[in-house]
Design a protein that fits this description.
The structure is a single chain. This protein is an alpha+beta fold and 73 residues long. The protein contains two helices and two strands, in the order ααββ. The protein has a two-stranded antiparallel ribbon. A hairpin with a 2-residue loop joins strand 1 and strand 2. Helix 1 packs across helix 2. 0% of the residues are buried.
Length: 73
Amino acid sequence: MDFSEIINSIYPVPQSSADKLRRLSRIVSLPKGYHVLEEGKLGPDVFFLAKGIACAYIYADARKITFWIGSEG
């Protein structure tokens, strides 16, 4: 999925707005298991998944509990 497709799947915007967002963005590749956000910390970024999946989880009672799974787009 390219950047414009991702943005427009969330909320359709004029091409000029999508172009501005693209200029302010950068593409990064992160390895499997990488922690984008950590509990108790504020993240400075917004993320869109162009390829792959991500999950959000917490540890409770010594168990890992997944509460969200996101996919491309």
